[in-house]
């Protein structure tokens, strides 16, 4: 006899404001021993200031799972639509230099 119940499917709800989303073109990532903080910003050309549009705070485990899921989705996107040209990878440049 098998008494193990299958988990209920996750039911996700989203309010209208969150469903509209926020456009961002810059992310700042920091971390401590117990959490990763992802700040998403929108920078307008010729504007020296900006504000954080959204902040996500996550555990290291979930940050790594997010990395895997994002990588998987980028690979699926590129297999359908071709490579995404994003310039040089940040690790390929001298420290402190980032090109867009």
Name the descriptors.
single chain; 100 residues; alpha+beta; three-stranded antiparallel beta sheet; 2 helices; 3 strands; 19% strand; disordered C terminus
Describe the structure.
- It is a single chain.
- This protein is of the alpha+beta class and 100 residues long.
- The chain has a domain at 22-84.
- It is built from two helices and three strands.
- It has helices at 16-20, 60-81, and strands spanning 26-31, 36-41, 52-58.
- The chain has a three-stranded antiparallel β-sheet.
- Strand 1 and strand 2 form a beta hairpin.
- The longest helix has 22 residues, at 60-81.
- The protein starts with 15 loop residues before the first helix and ends in a 19-residue tail after the last helix.
- The relative contact order is 0.10.
- Mean pLDDT is 89; it is low at 96-100.
């Amino acid at each position: 006899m098998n008494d193990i119940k299958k988990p209920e499917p996750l039911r996700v709800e989203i309010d209208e404001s969150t469903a509209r989303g926020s456009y961002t073109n810059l992310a700042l990532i920091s971390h401590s021993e117990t959490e990763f903080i992802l700040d998403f910003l929108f920078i307008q050309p010729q504007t020296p200031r900006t504000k954080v549009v959204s902040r996500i705070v996550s555990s290291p485990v979930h940050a790594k799972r997010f990395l895997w899921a994002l990588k998987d989705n980028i690979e699926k996107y590129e297999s359908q639509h071709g490579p995404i040209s994003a310039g040089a990878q940040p690790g390929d440049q001298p420290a402190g230099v980032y090109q867009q």
